[in-house]
Amino acid sequence: MMSLRAIARSAPRVLARPSTLRAASAAVLRTAARPSFVATQKVSAAFSTSAFRRAPAGEVDEELASKLTSELEFETSVKEGETLPASIKDFLENGQFELTDVPGQQDVFLTRTFGNEKITVSFSIADLSSFQEQNFEDDALADEQDFEDISSGRDGKSGANDLAEEADEDLEGQDTDAMPCRLNIVVEKPNKGALNVEAIAQDGTIVVENVYYYKDAKLAHSANPDAVHAAQDAYPGPAFGSLDEDLQILLERYLEERGITPALALFVPDYMDMKEQKEYLAWLENVKGFVEA
């Protein structure tokens, strides 16, 4: 027979056994249930993924891709019929500047050396958008003025004829008006700083607007915020048009000796137009590829 001490030691274990069995049973049940739960998860995941993959594209995607394709075909056909402008061909073949044009970037750089000087000329196709927006605003104001003229009494056939003639004159003027292209010209000398010239290229002419001098050449063309701030704080010099006329002429001749010539003034607008067309084609292709992906 078991002693009372033995009974006392074994009693808690015996009494505890039912709860242990219940816990074990629960564990077994949980373990047994787990595979079906995981399987359910897998089935659900597989179902949702396949459903997502089979989901149709947006209603507009196909129409948008078709329109982009049509636009690409049109722009490509226009480009195929064009020839390289003589201003670009002559400048690149006979000029002394090295061209840096990175696809996808708005800015274009021309660089050369002149003695111990490094000369950089930069321009941006962003000016095209600004020019077009300004023309659009000017046209809108002109149309509004025409409407006011008609409302105030310039109506009837004579008024309509006058407006038609004005519209024809505007169209003719658009063919002759050249877009002003902003140039940023930097002339650097080792340990001597730099001259920074702001100019406009238009109608085969270079028009100087401002001439700055920086002791630190980095201030002339650095995009670093600190450099930009320091450049803004520097004394800008007087407006170019307020300088003595002989001094203006000599500064213009100084730039011309370094390649800032009428040939450059003809090259820049034509090259900007050509680059903008190339970037637009690339943009159409990229957007089309994204929509169709």
From TrEMBL:
Residues 147-175 are annotated as: Disordered. It holds the Pfam family MAM33. InterPro entries: MAM33 (IPR003428), MAM33_sf (IPR036561). GO terms for biological process: cytosolic ribosome assembly. Gene3D superfamilies: Mitochondrial glycoprotein. It comes from the Eukaryota. Residues 163-175 have a biased composition (Acidic residues). One of its GO terms (cellular component) is mitochondrial matrix. This is Mitochondrial glycoprotein. It comes from Apiosordaria backusii.
